[in-house]
């Protein structure tokens, strides 16, 4: 339970840049001093990766030790149990620790401050929480990041500066004491030695190699190093063979100390030697520290909780405290409701908006590339031939693709409309970023059914092939459609001419505006061209070169110098206006032409082929809108809904996404409250368990 509290606090500290003051046993030492071996002896299993001289501990490893019937290990975030009595499981555990360490190290770095949490249970294991830190180094070797030394120091200091942390300072007995770096660091963090336990490793090698045994005595009595400690211990953690078992190391350690001259001469006391005595002493010290500090820590979190709850009540009195995950679930339900609303759109609304948008998209092509070139042929047979060829080309190449584009854009617009329409009095803008991201990602993933274009092409082709208008109502509707279209084009053309020739005399008089020299030339050219059209109302669309010369000479006679290109440019707009006005007049005549059309009478005045063309276009638009609406309601809306659900599921699993998309003071405050309550409740439960144990 205590380890759970430390895990939660570890996350809290990392996120809020604070440092809790709950006790842990922090294992520090120079690289290759035997830190990991001491830890393994306490845990009674060879659980850590090892390498000769190479840095193996690349990130802090928190090991929670407790007594249990079976000797097993387990990671905090995994359900797999490693049986520490089996060599295969031990090897797998070492590999997994190494993989996790390497994963935690970012690109370009050698060590990482991320903690790996592991629990070890077994018979006779002393209860405590230890943190194994990367070994302190003096010299950096090739391949290490430039800041490795500083990073190790900062990680070590961060753990040691906790006033309730017990520092287990490991010193290699086989090397000169003067080469130690870690003792200086420990003495800075705990100058009085009130929470430091000193451990001298490799005492067997020290006894063999050190000329003066008094040096070992001086170290164990705390007289040689510039640091103080609660207790001093001497241990032997093996002969340097990485394949030795814990039992054989224990036997070797006991055998060594039984025959050690240091003990026989009284330089070492019996309670100061062996890892078993060390474990008991560390565990005893750890639990004394826990009992002394845990209630104070719980009170601190109780005060923090009160402050946060007060802040919430004052800032958000009418809102429930929803953390990020709860807000995400609420937003998810809202988004799914909005997608379902798409199925409530009436067929009539779909078809109206599809038909209107499709005509806006294709009208320019129909008028400029099909109707005007055909109408300017001045011959009924040529008109129909030109129209049929151009309609076939258009249907084969562009129209189906354009129609699907329009349908997809319409679906997006309706989806966006439903998501924005919800913004009423109850609208919570905290969800806006998330909703927008879900909408964008769903749209990005949506692909229109690939077969839609092929089926649409056949339907559109058949609709445009049909020329038989069956009743007067359809005829009148086609005339109305044609009139509206031509009126709109005429209005655009008049606007272009107005810009070309500048303000007329009324505007100049009342608005004090003037024509530019170019507008004056354009105006004179326009007047000359209008005269030409009055003389020959059936003039073809193109101006002959001799006509251009005539116009230019007439203008020069009035003192207006004009370029032939400008004459042709002006003619294009003047003729277009003349043609559209003529077409509108003819359209008006065709109002009574249905009877002639139906009886197939040949009357040159009432050849209403253009009305039939507009009826064909109008009918194609209606049939296309109907087909697209069926595709939308029968499959595309459902597929979009499926995409939205998939996006929401992906976002739900991506914590980083949720942090980016659900932001603001309110979210952070709710998150803080949840975390602090969880810590406080765990601490109180732990304190209660401690009291019951007493």
TrEMBL record:
Pfam families: Dynamin_N, OPA1_C. InterPro entries: Dynamin (IPR022812), Dynamin_GTPase (IPR001401), Dynamin_N (IPR045063), G_DYNAMIN_dom (IPR030381), OPA1_C (IPR045817), P-loop_NTPase (IPR027417). It is an enzyme of class 3 (hydrolase). It comes from the Eukaryota. GO terms for cellular component: microtubule; mitochondrial inner membrane; mitochondrial intermembrane space. Residues 19-295 form the Dynamin-type G domain. Keywords: Apoptosis, Coiled coil, Disulfide bond, GTP-binding, Hydrolase, Lipid-binding, Membrane, Mitochondrion, Mitochondrion inner membrane, Nucleotide-binding, Transit peptide, Transmembrane, Transmembrane helix. CDD domains: DLP_1. It catalyses: GTP + H2O = GDP + phosphate + H(+). GO terms for molecular function: GTP binding; GTPase activity; lipid binding; microtubule binding. PROSITE patterns: G_DYNAMIN_2. One of its GO terms (biological process) is peroxisome fission. Gene3D superfamilies: P-loop containing nucleotide triphosphate hydrolases. It is found in: Mitochondrion inner membrane; Mitochondrion intermembrane space. It is a single-pass membrane protein. Its EC number is 3.6.5.5. The keyword Magnesium does not apply. The keyword Membrane applies. This is Dynamin-like GTPase OPA1, mitochondrial.
């Amino acid at each position: 339970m205590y380890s759970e509290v430390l895990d939660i606090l570890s996350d809290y500290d990392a996120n809020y840049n604070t440092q809790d003051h709950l006790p842990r046993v922090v294992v520090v030492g120079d690289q290759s001093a035997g830190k990991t071996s001491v830890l393994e002896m306490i845990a009674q299993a060879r659980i850590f990766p090892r390498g000769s001289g190479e840095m193996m501990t690349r990130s802090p490893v928190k090991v929670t030790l407790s007594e249990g019937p079976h000797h097993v290990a387990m990671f905090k975030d995994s359900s797999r149990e490693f049986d520490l009595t089996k060599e295969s499981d031990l090897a797998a555990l070492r590999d997994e620790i190494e993989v996790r360490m390497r994963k935690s190290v970012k690109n370009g770095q050698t060590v990482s401050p991320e903690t790996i949490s592991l629990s070890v249970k077994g018979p006779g294991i002393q209860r405590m929480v230890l943190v194994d830190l990367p070994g302190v180094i003096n010299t950096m070797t090739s391949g290490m990041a430039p800041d490795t030394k500083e990073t190790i120091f900062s990680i070590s200091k961060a753990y040691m500066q906790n006033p309730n942390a017990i520092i287990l300072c490991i010193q290699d007995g086989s090397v000169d004491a003067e080469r130690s770096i870690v003792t200086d660091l420990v003495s800075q963090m705990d100058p009085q030695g009130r929470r430091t336990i000193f451990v001298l490793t490799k005492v067997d090698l020290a006894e063999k190699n050190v000329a003066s045994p008094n040096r070992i005595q001086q170290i164990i009595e705390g007289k040689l190093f510039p640091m103080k400690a609660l207790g001093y211990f001497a241990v032997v953690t093996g002969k340097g063979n990485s394949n030795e078992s814990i039992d054989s190391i224990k036997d070797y350690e006991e055998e060594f100390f039984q025959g050690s001259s240091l003990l026989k001469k009284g330089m070492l006391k019996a309670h100061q030697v062996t890892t078993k005595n060390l474990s008991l002493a560390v565990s005893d010290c750890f639990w004394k520290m826990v009992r002394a500090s845990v209630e104070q820590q719980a009170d601190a979190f109780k005060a923090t909780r009160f402050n946060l709850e007060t802040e919430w009540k004052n800032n958000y009195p009418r809102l429930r405290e929803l953390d990020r995950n709860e807000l995400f679930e609420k937003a998810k339900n809202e988004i799914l409701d909005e997608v379902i609303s798409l199925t409530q759109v009436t067929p009539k609304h779909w078809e109206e908006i599809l038909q209107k948008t499709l005509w806006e998209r294709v009208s320019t092509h129909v008028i400029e590339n099909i109707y005007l070139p055909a109408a300017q042929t001045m011959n009924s047979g040529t008109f129909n031939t030109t129209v049929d060829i151009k309609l076939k080309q258009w249907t084969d190449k562009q129209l189906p693709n354009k129609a699907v584009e329009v349908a997809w854009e319409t679906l997006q617009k309706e989806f966006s409309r439903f998501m924005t329409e919800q913004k009423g009095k109850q609208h919570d803008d905290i969800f806006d970023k998330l909703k927008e991201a879900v909408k964008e990602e769903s749209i990005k993933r949506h692909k229109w059914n690939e077969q839609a274009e092929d089926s649409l092409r056949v339907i559109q082709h058949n609709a445009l092939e049909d020329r038989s208008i069956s009743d007067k109502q359809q005829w009148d509707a086609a005339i109305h459609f044609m009139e509206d279209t031509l009126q709109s084009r005429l209005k655009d053309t008049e606007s272009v001419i107005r810009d070309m020739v500048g303000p007329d005399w009324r505007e100049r008089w009342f608005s004090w505006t003037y024509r530019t020299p170019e507008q004056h030339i354009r105006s004179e050219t326009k007047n000359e061209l209008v005269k030409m059209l009055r003389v020959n109302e059936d003039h073809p669309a193109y101006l002959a070169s001799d006509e251009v010369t005539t116009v230019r000479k007439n203008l020069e006679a009035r003192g207006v110098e004009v370029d032939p290109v400008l004459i042709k440019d002006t003619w294009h707009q003047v003729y277009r206006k003349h043609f559209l006005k003529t077409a509108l007049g003819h359209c008006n005549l065709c109002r009574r032409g249905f009877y002639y059309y139906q009886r197939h009478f040949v009357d040159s005045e009432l050849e209403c082929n253009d009305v039939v063309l507009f009826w064909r276009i109008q009918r194609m638009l209606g049939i296309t809108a109907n087909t697209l609406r069926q595709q939308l309601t029968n499959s595309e809306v459902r597929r979009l809904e499926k995409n939205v659900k998939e996006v929401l599921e992906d976002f739900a699993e991506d914590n980083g996404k949720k942090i980016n998309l659900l932001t603001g003071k309110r979210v952070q405050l709710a998150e803080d409250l949840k975390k602090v309550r969880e810590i406080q409740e765990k601490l109180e439960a732990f304190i209660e368990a401690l009291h019951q144990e007493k």
